[in-house]
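call fold(seq) -> tokens
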Amino acid sequence: MRKFFFPLTLLLLACNTLPVGFDQLTTLPESGMLELVPDSLDYYGRHIPLGYADWLLLGRDEQYESRVLLKFPLKDSALDSVTGVRLILHPIDSTPVTFVCRACSTEWTTAAVTWLLADSATRWLTPGGDLWEFTLGTATLTRESTVVELDRSRLTLLVQKSSGIMLLPTDTGFAAITNMTDAKAGPKLVFHYADGKERIYYATGDAHIVDTLNICSQLTDLLIGASFAFRTYLKFRLDTLPPEVTILRAQLLFTPRTIYRRSDTLKLGVHRLTESYQLRNRHAGYEENAAATTAYILVAQDTMVSLDITTLVQNWVSHPDSFPNHGLLITAEPEWQRPFRLKLSRSGNTAPQLKIQYILPPPDRFSR
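ret:
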């Protein structure tokens, strides 16, 4: 037994001996990874103005319908000797879409018109647009320019009493049309006169409006979508991180299920909320410029989305008073993209999570 006493004594003495230069020892900074799940989450859907999209979308299927609105400066038109009126459109896609032209009976604005609103202060009497009952013309979009012969007997009402023309799809399929920003191929009306002359009117206002028709979402759904906007709200608690922390990387991750799409690439963005999100009215202000964006290309159903929000998280943690954490919105980016809809899980490996890689500053060497 005595032979074990001496080594044990040395071991005990060693454990109670301070290392040389302890007062000058610098402790390495702590670092690590946090994996957080949201403590609040929700979604809401909304009709949004699409008047400044890059194109005009016309078409419908069992889930969506998109109508096109056009406005021309016709008030000073001479009507006595008109022999014909043609509406000329230039489709971007090759999908044939048959449509009918009707005259709008309520004034609308490009910047604010939606399926429900004619402008920011006026609701349509009928969702989808207030229209005169008669038909101006019918046609089918083709890959080349499409010419619609308008009913000349309705010309006086179109010029003097209507507020533009609406195109309504009459069969399934979707096609995009060039808008008024295209000086050469934008929508135009051509008036033909008895003396062989013609007068061209270019669109001074245009938009498309979208409805979701028969989409029945559940209260527990988390959706992201375009054309008719679906937005998912998330909030992560960051209380465990001190203001002095350095965020090396913060990734918002989730694996959505694609419910509906009309494009191979779906663009997503994340926006910082500027005020508290209210679950009851499902609305809160948010920064227009996205904190991060990504192009989501569906390779397989389990394709993961990753959004880098390092700067956003750093500001939340370091400047809680001037940069409060009200949460974020995941949206289509921009929301006027062709219709798509993604569904997020609320729990499990595919649900949203925030992965934060951080490093803490060295502790005060004189602290006790």
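Residues 1-29 have pLDDT under 50 and may be disordered.
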